[in-house]
Design a protein that fits this description.
Residues 413-462, 479-528 form the BFD-like [2Fe-2S]-binding domain. With 781 residues, this protein is α/β, with parallel strands linked by helices. The protein is 33% helix and 21% strand. The protein starts with a strand and ends in an 8-residue tail after the last helix.
Amino acid sequence: MKQKLVVIGNGMAGVRCVEEILKHNSQDFDVSIIGSEPHLNYNRILLSSVLQGEATFQDITINDIDWYELNRIKLFSGEAAIKIDSHKKEITTDQNRSLPYDKLIIATGSSPFVLPVPGVEKNGVVTFRTIEDCKAIIETSDKAKKAVVIGGGVLGLEAARGLLNLGLDVKVVHNTDYLMQRQLDVTASNMLREKLEKQGIGFLLGKVTQEIVGDNKVEGLLFTDGSSIDADLVVMAVGVIPNIEMAKTSGILTDRGIVVNDFMETSISDIYAVGECVQHNGVVYGLVKPLYEQGQVLAKHICGLAEQGYKGSILSTSLKVPGIDLFSVGEFDEDDTTKTLKMLNEMDEVYKKIVVRGDIIVGAVLFGDTNDQSRLLDLIVKRKHVSDEEKRKILESANKDASSIKSMKASEIICNCNGVSKGTIIEAVQQKGLTSVEQVKQCTKASGSCGGCKSLVSDLLAYIHSDECEEIFQQKSLCACTSLTEDEVVLQIQQRNLSTLQDVFVELGWKTKSGCSSCAPAISYYLAMIYPDTDGLNEKFSVNENIGAYLEKDGTYSVVPQMYGGMTNAAEFRRLASIIEKFKITNVGITAEQRIQLKGIEKEHIQAVCSELNMQLSPVRTNTIRHVNTCFGEQICQCENKHALQLAIELEKETEYLLTPHRVVLGISACKHREIDMITKDISIIGVNRGWEIYVGGSSNPSVKQGELFTVASNSQEAKQLICGFVQYYRETANYLEQIGEWIERVGLIHIREVLFEDSLRDQLVERLEAEVLPFVGKPV
């Protein structure tokens, strides 16, 4: 039977969570939503756009009635939940309705904070939170001339601009000396105030309201310093308070908000909470992106899918006021651990500030030029190391043109609220023929929440339809033998339990009997990954084909004796020299992996050579882990390297028999003297005073690319566990022939960190890796 899922709250957080649940599992839940407002699900963030005349109430509706009906969701709008009986698992509403539940999600949001001063009850004093508030402001403005907005934050400034558009004389009252003090520094705030003043908005800063004066209707404000101002409309925009009263009276643990854990579970079983009513790790979030991230976590958890849990969010803010380009993210205050880079161009009214800790950007403020906001947010969220050149480019003023859009990576996020990348939008536009921002929003959700990325979506759309765009995103079949994509083939193998190449070719309707050089190796790899415990399968794809003598084009063989860590000894050297002389092997050299390679071995001698070597043989020309280390650094380095050699040997033994989607080069250095060379490997481990820095995603082919700092391990054991877990996760989730750097760009480094930093998930990955390696340890070649 279907589980009864009830959501209290028809707002953005609760309904987005339902959307995610339906996406993962639309069959197991009978969904009911209780909404206290008499409306369908709408975008509360865009109310300021309605007030400013940029949108209609219809425009900000997220899901129309057809969506509820299509998904068989029972909507009780204009009805409020007043009590939860967790013992009976039943909810009571203000219309004496009782709704049973198996799972309950509380998404009651927040209410506007109203200053506790005399006169707040007078006609003409309104808040700005709901559609009704917005309508009341518009109706009152017809009779008003002078409006005062109390609150110089984002909502207050957006409301002020809306009142200005309605033809009112507008003043903003704020209790501190500069606007948006939680998101801006003094310089950016002053530039913002000056620009808004030019638009016609007045400001009274450092003022604290003592009383709202007038008889029945508001006539003005009196401040604590004795000054006053006339007004016939007052808009309260001084913050919000989480709606937790019902949860509190129902016995659910609350503080400032409803207290939840990483899986959005409350203190009572089967009751969850998301959105502005929630307190997670002491933090209450009031921005849309964190609320959506919470909903994604909860949806997976309720659907029984693997999920690392919610770990908090990096906050970013933009201002939806025409003519104002403003963006703030992360930490913008300076302290002893940070350095700042600033650029001020008073002529063009552009100001940029980047806050850096080490080589990692931790916060930024952009005013007048916000083209780099997506790139900055990506750098901050993923904790990417940034070169001085990249920082300089961000600080440079830039015009919005096709070249700036073109230079963005496909994986870069355009819409931060909904996590929509450039590549996703290009693919949707090209495949579905989208021609407007509204169509892009409907298809991908980009610009569908806060609307801050609308101009960027518009620029991207123009670029896609221009001659400059040469980027093409489309689902490609695995090869010419099939119309199925690579992902579809893997899914069919799993769903149909196909275990051999021939099974795949027959059951999936291959156009050729034995595949081709493209699909056969790929399917072989996926079979080995899907069935790692099948007898003989691991041996077939790990030992016989990938480890041993390699047949050269001229009919001779080559071998690379295994020398863990690139180390050898006198006995091995004498044995090698003897074999080279005995079998007249003239082609002997040192490989890039610091191993000795014997080439040109005649076919009749190969068995004897391998027997007399009596050594394991390294993988030759195949997709496995390749170890490189700076064992004996040159004259520039005399650092102690014993610990690095030991870690190299241990890692090589842990991973030497593993197939990987693409050839992996792993570098280990005892110090940072060769850092530039080292971090161009797929995985680089560099010794530092505090442990081991681990870099991932570097490359030297086809072009040189430095890796990103993944983490810093405090000791060798932690480093080994993290790297083994990383390798196994790459093996399990990457596409065949997808390099580590490409894989990271596709799935995101922050996601990989979330997986590997979760102890239980990392341990499971390492266990699976060890289970595949164990049968071959000590196995003779």
